[in-house]
Structures are given as structure tokens and as C-alpha cells.
Design goal:
By secondary structure, the chain is an alpha/beta fold. It contains 13 helices and 20 strands. The longest helix is centred in the middle third of the chain and has 14 residues. The structure holds cytidine-5'-triphosphate.
Length: 395
């Protein structure tokens, strides 16, 4: 399972540091390449020689131990498939939450863009401190997995929540995440996001409230699952995969046509404007003396439907997923829409609710499949929903 994978373990200065020796042995037995970084304080609890022998690699501690052109904090971050910090002290947790990079471990954490798991261990009063709680919340909101400490007798003499969770739990979390990071490997996933913008004149346009966040969350999850990702979006996002910025429905259609023949999965999360103005005005339209004006609109192509039709006569047959935004009769309308469009899955979104959907950080959706199956995903953050959607369609 772990052969060919590099697990980067950050050890900070807590008594539970000695337990990580056993974890390193287990990871090595599973054929992982294990790299260890220690904070200087961690070496008060466990020796560099022990960690070096167990991991069969150099143990990094000093930030400015520069042996090659690429600084160590960048090369360690680049090389690893996953980063685990265990035990993580309140100090290191808080620094990472604030982006402080004042030693090698925190610098690597700051430069690390793949999956990170943190297993805290500390005195129970420190764990319950509001500042620490907030910092944990911040880390979670960034997609960092926290393996909560357990209740028990603590090395400081207290009894409470603060013990490092079991080594088995940490090991299983690493395996789970490595499996997850390979679910879509070898697949190209093309995702659209955001509301299209249909210009009226140089200063005005027709658009909608879509924030593009659901599509962005899907693109991030697909990337974490090992896919080659292309995000075609009307919004400004920065991410470690190909992003094609588009404006109108016609631009989006062109970009999709270009990517179609190499795609394995296409997800239309964008809110495409159904109409555009018939005649774009090069000059700003002036106010008239009339109390009402009429804008003549023409229909935009139904991109999703077009893709499903194109697939019928194409050698490449990507899985095609649509979204459906409804303000009433969600399931009924979604059922009609999936058969009308001809896609494999349709993700139905209730836009009448203000706590989910457009602009919100959360969503709650029902996945319909072309054979009449249905799966409801309970309200959760868009990144959790994205992950669940991708896992479901990949089954
Ligand atoms: N869609 C599309 N091209 C359009 C309109 C919508 O590809 N011109 C796609 C959307 O990206 C989404 C799905 O079709 O994946 C459903 O979009 P939705 O706005 O819910 O439905 P419409 O087809 O526009 O129908 P209506 O507005 O009447 O509900």
C-alpha cells in the first residue's frame, strides 16, 4: 500500500514524541519512505539517532542546513505525499494556524500544499484553551485533519483530554489518506464553476449569484484524489492545477469542446446563463426618455445537453455530471432535467434556502443517477460535499 509513498513526519517537543518511534517502524514495514523533521525541542524527548535508524533517512532539524540549491523546507514539502505532525504541541498548532514559519518544521508546514494530518498532545487545560480551540478550528477549515487527543492519565499528572491518540489510529489515518489520494489517479477531470457573464455593453452585463465555490471545492477534491484537473471558471481562483478563466457561456462551451476528447469526467457545476443579449453594444447604452426599455435576448446553447449528445458519437465517452439549481419542487424538476439533458448524474441543489447553496460555505444536495437511483448528502461544508460526490460517482 505505501510502497513508493513518502510520509513526512513532523515531531514537536512533547513527551509523546517517543511513541512516534513505533509509528515509524510500522510505516517502514509497510514499505513507506519515511522522512522525519523535528523541532529543536522534540530532541529533548527522543534522539536524532533513534529516529534516523528507524526511518533509515537523515532527520532534519535546522532550517539553514542547506545542502543543495533548493531550500530544505521546499524540497521536503515537494517530495512528500502526506505530512503528519505528531505529537503536535499547542505552540506548533498555533504557529501553523497563523502561518508562522520560524523553524524548519513550521516552514515546511507553511509550504505544504497536499494533505496534512495533525495529532495534538498536550495538557488538558491547554487543549481546552480558547485560543488553541480556535486555532484547531482554523486548521480544520483549511482541510487539515485533526486526530483528536484522548482522555486519560497525562504525563503532567493531570487526568483529562490531551493524550496522543493511539498509534493505530494515526497509522490507519495515513493509509486512508493515501488510498484516497489515488482514487482518481490516471483520470482527467474537467469541472466548470461560477456564473457566466453575458455582456450587454462595456459597463453592464447579465449574470447570477453563483460564487463558483462548489466547483472549486470539487476541483480541489479531485486534485487531492490524484486526478489531473482542469477548472473552467468565471471566477478568480489560484490552485495547483490548470485553470481556464472564461466569461460567457460561449467561452465556456469553447473551452469544454477543447478539453472534451481527453476528459474522463466532466462536471458542470457552473451556473450558465440561459440567455445573452442579441446585440452587444460597443458603446455604453445611453439612458432614454422612455420609462421602460426592452433588451432582446437570444438563447445560449445548453452546454451540458450538447456534451451528452456529442458523447454518443464520440470515441471518448466521459462520465458527465450536471448540477441543477431549483427554487421549488427540487426532486421532481431534477428527475425531468436528468432525462432531458442525458447526463449520468445530476446533483440537485435547493437554492431557496439561504443556509446552503449560492455563496454559502455549505451545501446539502441530492445525487440522482440516470437509472433512477438517489442519494441525499446531509448538510456539510462544500469541500466535504465535493468529496462525497466524487466518491459516489467513482464507485
Ligand atoms: N447548463 C448548461 N447550459 C445552459 C444552462 C445550464 O450547460 N445553457 C447546465 C448547468 O451547468 C447545470 C445544468 O445544466 O449543470 C442545469 O442547470 P440549471 O440552471 O439548473 O437548468 P437549466 O437547464 O438552465 O433549466 P432551468 O433554468 O429552466 O431550470
Amino acid at each position: 500500500m505505501l510502497s513508493g509513498k513518502t510520509i513526512l513526519i513532523g515531531i514537536t517537543g512533547g513527551i509523546a514524541a517517543y511513541k512516534i518511534c513505533e509509528l515509524i517502524r510500522q510505516l517502514k514495514k509497510s514499505n513507506a519512505n519515511v522522512k522525519v523533521i523535528c523541532t529543536p525541542n522534540a530532541l529533548n524527548f527522543v534522539t536524532k539517532l533513534t529516529l534516523q535508524n528507524l526511518s533509515q533517512n537523515d532527520v532534519a532539524v535546522e532550517e539553514f542546513n542547506i545542502k543543495e540549491w533548493k531550500p530544505e523546507h521546499i524540497s521536503l514539502a515537494d517530495e512528500a505525499d502526506i505530512m503528519l505532525i505528531a505529537p503536535a504541541t499547542a505552540n506548533t498548532i498555533s504557529k501553523i494556524a497563523y502561518g508562522i514559519a520560524d523553524n524548519l518544521l513550521t516552514s515546511v508546514a507553511c509550504a505544504f500544499s497536499k494533505k496534512m494530518i495533525i495529532a495534538p498532545a498536550m495538557n488538558c487545560n491547554m487543549w481546552n484553551n480558547d485560543a488553541v480551540k480556535n486555532n484547531i478550528k482554523t486548521l480544520r477549515s483549511r482541510g487539515i485533519e485533526i486526530l483528536e487527543p484522548e482522555n486519560g492519565f497525562l504525563a503532567c499528572g493531570y487526568f483529562g483530554k490531551g493524550r496522543l491518540c493511539s498509534i493505530k489510529k494515526i497509522f490507519d489515518a495515513v493509509i486512508e489518506n493515501i488510498k484516497y489520494s489515488q482514487l482518481l489517479s490516471g483520470k482527467k477531470v474537467v469541472i466548470t464553476s461560477g456564473g457566466t457573464i453575458e455582456d450587454i455593453d462595456p459597463v453592464r452585463y447579465i449574470s447570477n449569484y453563483s460564487s463558483g465555490k462548489m466547483g472549486f471545492a470539487l476541483a480541489n477534491s479531485a486534485k487531492q484524489m490524484g486526478a489531473e484537473v482542469v477548472l473552467i471558471t468565471t471566477k478568480d481562483f489560484d490552485a495547483p492545477y490548470k485553470i481556464i478563466k472564461v466569461k460567457s457561456a460561449l467561452d465556456m462551451q469553447n473551452a469544454l469542446d477543447y478539453e472534451f476528447s481527453t476528459s474522463d469526467i466532466i462536471i458542470m457545476a457552473a451556473a450558465v446563463a440561459d440567455y445573452r443579449v442579441k446585440e452587444y453594444s460597443d458603446q455604453k447604452r445611453k439612458k432614454t426618455s422612455n420609462q421602460t426599455i426592452t433588451l432582446e435576448l437570444v438563447e445560449n446553447p445548453d452546454i451540458l445537453k450538447g456534451l451528452c449528445e456529442k458523447r454518443q458519437n464520440s470515441q471518448k465517452k466521459p462520465l458527465i455530471i450536471g448540477f441543477c439549481a431549483e427554487s421549488e419542487n427540487l426532486i421532481e424538476n431534477a428527475k425531468t432535467k436528468i432525462s432531458k439533458k442525458g447526463c449520468d448524474y445530476l446533483i440537485a441543489n435547493d437554492i431557496s434556502r439561504t443556509d446552503i447553496g449560492f455563496g454559502s460555505e455549505n451545501n446539502e444536495v441530492t445525487i440522482l443517477d440516470k437509472n433512477g437511483g438517489m442519494k441525499r448528502l446531509e448538510k456539510a461544508s462544500k469541500s466535504v460535499i465535493a468529496r462525497q460526490i466524487l466518491e459516489y460517482i467513482d464507485e
